[in-house]
Amino acid sequence: MKKVGMFSVVFLALSFTLFWTVTASTVHAAQRAKEVILATTTSTQDSGLLDVLLPVFKKETGYFVKTISVGSGQAMMMGRKGEADVLLVHSPAEEKKLVDEGYFVDRKLVMHNDFIIIGPPNDPAKIKGSDTAVEAFKKIAQGGCLFYSRGDKSGTHSKELSIWKAAAINPEGQEWYRKTGSGMGATVNVASEKDGYTLADRGTYVALNKKSRLHSVILLEGEPGLLNIYHVMVVNPAKWPKVNTAGAKAFDDFMVSKTAQELIRTYGVEKFGSPLFFPDAGKDPKTLGL
């Protein structure tokens, strides 16, 4: 009888453990079904835009967004590995290449802001008044003035490197060329503290300047070639079947919806006096130089 009793106890314990294991697994699966992993750039996070968009997305769809804010290059690498469900990035040439290679689908034009060159108010390289970013970069290099690069393979870093290339200058290894290895907000803060120059997106600069009164000022802006263009795209479920495709597509559609586009259009006006981004859903990409 004792053996039978002991067997019953063990059987009940195992059954209980199995029940809770299955239950926990079911709950986790249900939670994952309502969670969307977004890999995006530091600029969308640092500017505060996501703080406005994501609560509305959750209210409309029921999906909770887990945001991973890194450079565009890192975000796209995450997508290629199936470590994210959907991306919001700003590196058009690389995005298109990866879509063509089958890593992403449903790529859509969302918005733009622009890149600016900021630096110390006394402008030791005398770049203020330059016609182009290429001309400004040449002056910075010729003057041996401090320049801070993100150095993180982000969309901003890629844009910066393209300007150095157009200027026929290789800054690698130069004493005046420093890499932060950090996101946009951190790089802007370092450049401001160290009286250096950097290439930044306007949204991040304006948001940080409002918050902490940066020492850096805008020295070059408005060049057509400095548009900073964002797309949303879904990780291809054909390559990564376990991604939350339904949630990713819901976010993809939301970003080009009238609701999101209006939030993008007005974001920053009340707080900063001007919009930080401009909505582009439905536009002909050629109008943006793409």
Question: What is the fold's blueprint, element by element?
Answer:
Layout: H1 2-33, E1 35-41, H2 42-46, H3 49-61, E2 64-70, H4 72-80, E3 86-89, H5 92-100, E4 104-119, H6 133-143, E5 147-149, H7 155-166, E6 177-179, H8 184-193, E7 198-201, H9 202-212, E8 217-220, E9 227-235, H10 245-255, H11 258-266, H12 269-272, E10 278-279
Parallel strand pairs: 1-2, 1-3, 5-6
Antiparallel strand pairs: 3-9, 4-7, 4-8, 4-9, 4-10
Describe this structure in words.
The chain has 290 residues and is an alpha/beta fold. It has two domains: 35-113 and 227-283, Periplasmic binding protein-like II (D-Maltodextrin-Binding Protein, domain 2, 3-Layer(aba) Sandwich); 114-226, Periplasmic binding protein-like II (D-Maltodextrin-Binding Protein, domain 2, 3-Layer(aba) Sandwich). Helix content is 47%, strand content 20%. The chain contains twelve helices and ten strands. The longest helix has 32 residues, at 2-33. It starts with a helix and ends in an 11-residue tail after the last strand. The model is unreliable at 22-29 (pLDDT under 50).
Brief account:
This protein is of the alpha/beta class and 290 residues long.
